[in-house]
Each structure stands twice: as C-alpha cells, then as structure tokens.
Amino acid sequence: MRTPTRQRRRAVSLTPPNLVSCSRPELAGGGPAGGSRPLDLFEYLAQNWVDVVNDAILHVDLTLAAMAIAVLVGVTVGVLTYQRPALASLATTTTAAFLTIPSIALLGILIGPFGLGLTNVLIALSLYALLPITRNTIVGLRGVDRAIIEAGRGMGLGRARLLWRVRMPLAWPVILSGIRVSTQITIGIAAIGAYVKGPGLGNEIFDGLGRFGSVNSLNQVLTGTLGIVVLALLFDLAYVVLGKLTTLRRAPAVLAGKPGEAARRAGEAIELTGVSKLYPGSANPAVDNVTMRIPAGEIVVLVGPSGCGKTTTMKLINRMIEPSSGEITVGGTDVRALDPDEHRRNTGYVIQQTGLFPHLRVAANIGVVPKVLGWARERIAARVGELLAVVGLSPEHARRYPGQLSGGQQQRVGVARAMAADPPVMLMDEPFGSTDPITRARLQDEFLRLQREIGKTVVFVTHDFDEALKMGDRIAVLRPRSVIAQYDTPSAILTAPADDYVASFIGSGAQLKRLALIRLDEIDLGADADGDLPELPASTTLHDALDTMLRTGAGTVRVTRDGAVVGTCDLDRIVSALPPSQLPADRPPTPDPDDAAVPAAAPRKRNWRGLVVRPVLLAVALLALYFVVRAQPIDSIEGRYLNGNEIAAELSDHVVLSLVATLFTVVIAVPLGILLTRPGARWIRPIGLALGNLGQAIPSIGLVVLLALWIGTGTTTAVIALVVYATLPVLRNTIVGLEGVDTGVIDAARGMGLSRVAVLRRIELPLAVPVILAGIRTALVLTVASATLATFIDGGGLGGGLVAGIGLYRPVLSLSFGIIVAALALFADWLGLLAEEVLKPRGL
In terms of DSSP bridges, do strands 299-303 and 333-334 run parallel, antiparallel, or are they unpaired? Predict the structure, then answer.
C-alpha cells in the first residue's frame, strides 16, 4: 500500500462538522497559494492532479486488498456451506448483518480494537463485501442443473472433481456477479473511510466537506465523487472482460474416425440378487427384493409406471444409490468391492436430459472420463473422432458447445460420451424421451444398429411399452417398488402376459405390436409368383410388410435377400405366423393393488418460523445495546448523546426520513420499471438502468454533499439523495419480476380477452410481487443504513451520535448508535419479509 504524499489531506478534522460555517480560512482559496479566486474543475485538476492521481491509486489499492480478503473468505464459506442448508442460512444471515450496520458506524466501532487508519478501513470494507460473494457462491453452486451433476457422478467424477470441474465453472458467472456487486459496494464505501484517516479519493470529498461553502469546496467534492464513479465504471468494465475471458474454451483437437472402430470390450453379465432399497424415514422400500439376471451383450428394458422404482433400480447397479440389502455383480464381481468412482468410470451412463456440461465443447464432453483415467491427449482426440463417426456426427461438431446442438445431436453426444472409455455396461435412463417422435425413432434405429456392432450390456429405462418392445432383447415389467411382474422376451410377454397387470400395461392392439417383432425371413414363404409385385428385403418386419400391402393395394409382396428372390408373403401367411395369443380381451387397465392414492398437494404454508427469527434478533441486538451501555462508564459528553429523549427524537427523525425516502423510491421506481417492460418502451430500458446504476455508483457521502452544495442542506436534500441511492434495486427487481412471468400464462390471459392493462393488473403484477417486494426490502434496508449520512447536511437522524463517537473518539457512542441503526434495519427487513409473506399469492 503506497504512503500518501500530501499530509494536509490526511489531517481531516474528526469533530462533527457544522456544514454551514465550518470552513478553514487558510484553505478557503482555490489553489495551494490560498488565493480567493474560484477555479473551475479543470483548473483545479490541473493544479492538484498529482495528489488526485495518488489518491486514486491508493483507492484502487485499498479496493483490491479488501476484495482479495472478501473473495477468499466469501467463496470459501460458500463452498463449505452450500450443501448444508442450516450452515448456509447462518452464513448468509451473519454476513447480511454487517450490511445492516451503517458504514460510518462500523468504522467507528472498529476504532476501539484497530484505531484510526488503514487497518480499520480494510477490515470494514472486507466485512461489507462478504454478503454478495457468499450468497452468490451458495446460490450459484446450488443452481447447477441436477441432471448435469447426476451425469458427472454417473461418469465416476468424485466430489472434488465435480466441484472444481463442473460446479465451479458453471457457477462462476453467478459468483463473478457477486464479486462485481461487492466491488461496487467497496469502491463507494471506501470514500467514507477517509473520515477515520483511511486512504483514497474520499479525502477529496471530506476536504471539500470540511471547507463547505468555500469557493472551491465543490471542486474537491466533485473531483472525489467523479473519480470514484470513474473507478467504479472501470472496475465494472474489467469484470465484463474477465467474464468473457474466463468463459472462453480452447477447441480441443479431434482426429478423424471411422464408424465401427469404437468397440473393444464386450458386454458383461449383470446379476441382482435380493436387492432392496429403503430410504431413511420411509415406511416402504423404494426397491423390494429384486432378483434378475441380465445376460452379457443384451439390452434389457425396465418398464413400468412413473414412480415404480425403475431409475432407482438402475442407479443401484452403478452405486449412484447404495442398496440397503442384497448383492449386485457385474462380470461376476460384487460391485461393493469396487471403488464407486472407478466402477462408474467403467459404466456408461446416459440420461434423458443428456447431462452434457454446457461450459465444455462437445469434444471435451466426450473426453471427460478418458481424461480422468489419464489417457494421453492424442489418444483422447482419436477416441473422440471415432465416437463422433460412430454416432453419425461430423468432426466439426466437436468444436461446438452443447447449446449449439439440436436435441437429437445432444442425445448422440450423450451416447458417445457414455462409450468414451469403452465400458462393458451402459445404463440408459429414458435417453430419447426429450426428443420429438421422428427424432426419437431415428435415434432408436441408430442405437440398435450401433448395439449390433458393439455388443454392450445395456440396461434401458422407459415408461413407453412400445419403445421397450422395439429396443429390448428382454423386458422387465415392474410393479411399484420394482417388484417384477414379468421378465421375458418381448414376444413371450405379448403372447402370454403373466397377469392382468402386465396385460393392462400392454394395452390394446397386442397382436399388431407382435407383428413388429417378426421378420419376413422368420416365417414360411410361398413360391415366387408372376406379375409386378412390391419387393421387400427379408429383414422387413411383418408390420412393415402389412403396411406396404395396404399402401399399394397388393395382396402379396416379393421377398428378396441380397438381390435374389427367396419367396413371397401374403396376408394369410402373416396371419398364420402369429401364434394364438393368451392376452385377455381388451379392457380398461386394472389398477394395481400396491398403488396408493396420491394425496392432493397441500397449500403452501406461511413461513412463520422465519418470521419469528428477525424479531428475536432485534430483541437480542437491543439487549446487547443495554448491557454495553450499562457496562461502560459514561461521562457527561456521552450522557448528552445517550439521553433517552435525545435518542427517541433522533430515532423518530430517522424513521420518518427512511419511510419518506422509501415511499418516493417505490412511487418512482415501480412505475418506471413497468414502463420499461412494455413492448413499445423497451428501447429506453438501457438508459433507465444506466441512470439507476449511476445513482449507486456515486459514493453515498459524495452524493449527499454534492446535492447539499447544489440545492442546500436539510431534510429535503437528504430525502433526494436517499431516493437516488435506493432506486436501482426496486427498478431492477420490477423489471426482472415482470419479465420472469411465464409468457404462456400471459398468452392464455390475452387469449381469454383480457386487455393489456387487465393482464398487467391481474396477472403480471401479482406474479411479480415476490421479486418486486424483495427489491423494496433491499431498498428499505439501504435507506435505513444510508440515512445516517444525513447528519452531514443537517438532515437529522441517528447519524449525529455516530459522527460524534468518531469525532470525539468515544467508541461507546459509535457502538451504541450503530446497534440502534442495525436493529432498526433488521426491523425494517423483518417488515419487508412479513410483507412478502402476506402479499405473495398463495399458489406460488
């Protein structure tokens, strides 16, 4: 940290300034010579640019040092607590408590242990910057798509790798946003540090404040204020660039491959013996005593109603879920004897949502497991090329991100990634369920072709029985709790369903479904016939042959193999090829006795427990104030400020000032936010948000003093300053809340004939209430804390005791009034929380 060169700027008076008459005659002039001629801003900068630049450098140094501490502590706390809700809540509540203490109060309180100067300011800034970083780290890490985490776990990535290679990169934009907000807070509050002999551009502001009314005091305040605004904008620009640089990924090398090169290891048999899974606190097991053998190289489909335990059973195989009892073997080896991560790396895993890592290119996605296994870069590149060719994608796709692919292409990449380490077993959880019917059919055909080449053992989960018939060598029809109703080949299940439950699951048209399982070369064909007949290859199913007959009007089709005619097939031969079915007559599905009625969802309950916490904290804070004051000897000066009547009067002024400012903020910001979301006015939104950002980029003390110099001192000026400072949260949240309303809901309302005004009043605003109230709540807390600065311009409030505590070096005053303001901010925050709970629509 650099040593300041101008000691005059460090000799700031620590007595509360009387802004009407407090000016130094010897410094009343505009320049160093003390002349009385007023200078314009450029002349002032020309004479004092060295000192201004030095102050700016010190301001940057201070900001960077405080941010380094805050990032180290905030990110660490977020990483350690994001998976533990109680600890995360404690962390955010604790860091939020620092923001409820006015900055000048916190600086005053820290005078006791750390005295005046750099250390005091550095610690205060670090504490103020913690909340956005900690909260955004927790929110960002929790917000990573669960499907992506599931995919990572299924690929054998351990907790550490999942955190640093998946969660942190995906959460980084949110974390960086928190760091960005914290930096803006730090730059602004660092200006107030000058009041306790801290370095930086705040000294320009307080020098001008100390000579309030002199000919060049405005120049000094403007210099400090505009300098801080410029630094805030430069830091913000730096974060934009940093965000771009840290999200760029180098395209990995990919070698061209050929289809058919990907298979090396054959499938291995899987055996489940008496496997059960009972979750803690549950009366019934999710999986109950499952016993089945899955032959090597076959596709076994688990099919059943939603919630019957299909996915749970599949996840037991790769130990994504640990069984409560029973044994599972793969290739004759008990999976419990294997390291879970190593076992998953040898088990391909494909899920419905694909689980592709959006921050990695396609080639990097496919190469995740090989890279973890320590493969050489050249070998990974060759493997990626092979697999892209196998799944029908070009080498150009390797350089794309998942978001640049269609749904079908993403599914192909998911299959390729599952095959990357050549696993003998593949687990596929509704892998084609999120695609349209045409794409799904094409993907199914391509996978069956691929399976004929690679011969893996595949466990395939679906709720679609037709898909099970097409994909499976064997099908396991499951009841609730994964109880096996029937486990057999598709043909056997269609021909002889085990019971009414299986029959009802098959549904109507079982005979037609059986046609899709029999091929022309599997039945007795007739001799070739004369005439122009449709020709079909011998691998055609009877279903497709019948479809051809119906489309062409021909009663017979000619069957060929390798171009040679091998016979004919007519309708009678198709019918005779179907053995008698034991399927019960078509009837409505029979409900399963194990199915329990699902109760209707209970209405959302009010969070009364959370509403009680804040008043308790408020009572604790006031009690702490009482004991602190009683434990300290109070002299006559402190007694004058800690007088009950005096505190009550200042508290009343502070409350009125905060409420009036918040009311004006809401009246201005909410309508403006509504206007900026209307279709015809969206072009001016950047201007509105820019003005709101500018209001918060200006340091609060600089804003207060500038307004006082321009329009005079007093309560009106304080209210204007607070409104400018608190507008952004309400404005931004109004825009975010209204734009977050589901467009489908709005279209439905418009389709019912509601006018735009009615849609806004009855649909958009009620649904946006939670977000808007959160912005108002933030603005209210900011206003309560920032209103302490009104004392510098004779605006009243509780700031007088805080300033006196610093100026008179009475830490008990700073601590006492700081706790009062913090308690008031907590109470205001509780009122906002109460309003959110009461006004939030019950259905949300």
Answer: unpaired
Reduced to 3 states, what is the DSSP secondary structure of residue 643? Answer: coil
Residue 625 confidence class, pLDDT cut points 50, 70, 90: low
Beta strands in 249-385 (DSSP E): 270-277, 287-294, 299-303, 325-330, 333-334, 347-351
What pLDDT sits at residue 770? 82
Inter-helix orientation angle 700-711/217-247, to 10°: 140
Q: Are 166 and 144 in contact (CB under 8 A)?
A: yes
Q: What domains sit in the chain, N to C, each tagged with a CATH number?
A: 7-247 (1.10.3720.10), 270-504 (3.40.50.300), 520-577 (3.10.580.10), 611-839 (1.10.3720.10)
* 365-376 pLDDT, tens digit each: 999 889 888 899
Helix, strand and coil content of the chain, in percent to the nearest 5, comes to 60, 10, 30
CA–CA gap between residue 377 and residue 385 (Å, rounded): 12
> Does position 8 have pLDDT exceeding 60, yes or no?
no
d(CA 186, CA 127): 10
Q: What is the dihedral of CA 585, 589, 591, 595, to 10 degrees?
A: 130
Radius of gyration of the chain (CA): 36
pLDDT digits (tens, 9 = 90+) for 489-508: 988 888 888 888 888 888 76
Helix (H) or strand (E) holding 513: helix 510-515
The pLDDT of residue 225 is 83
Between the CA of residue 481 and those of 276, 319, 599, 639, what are the distances in Å?
A: 9, 18, 18, 73
Helices assigned H by DSSP within 82-155 = 85-100, 103-114, 118-142, 146-154
Nearest to 277 by CA among 266, 285, 268: 285
Cβ-based neighbour number of residue 274 at 10 Å: 12
Q: In this structure, what are the phi and psi dihedrals at residue 195, rounded to the nearest 5 degrees? A: -70, -20
- pLDDT tens-digit profile of 323-337? 999 999 999 999 999
Please say whether the beta carbons of 257 and 387 come within 8 A: yes
- At residue 163, the 3 state secondary structure works out as helix
Q: What 3-state DSSP class applies to 795?
A: coil
Collapsed DSSP state (helix, strand, coil) of residue 686: helix
pLDDT band (50, 70, 90) for residue 76: very high
How far is it, in rounded angstroms, from Cα 250 to Cα 653? 59
d(CA 314, CA 767): 39
Average pLDDT, the chain: 80
Dihedral pair phi/psi, residue 488, rounded to 5°: -165, -175
- Scan for tokens 């309003």, then name that residue: 835
Contact 827, 608 (CB under 8 A): no
Q: How many CB atoms lie within 10 A of CB 309?
A: 22
CA 709 – CA 281 distance, rounded (Å): 67
Measured CA to CA, the distance from residue 64 to residue 60 in angstroms comes to: 6
Q: What mean pLDDT comes out for the span 253-261? A: 54
User: To which residue do tokens 């004392």 refer?
Assistant: 791
Burial 219-245 (b: 16+ CB within 10 A, else e): bbbbbbbbbbbebbeebbeebeeeeee
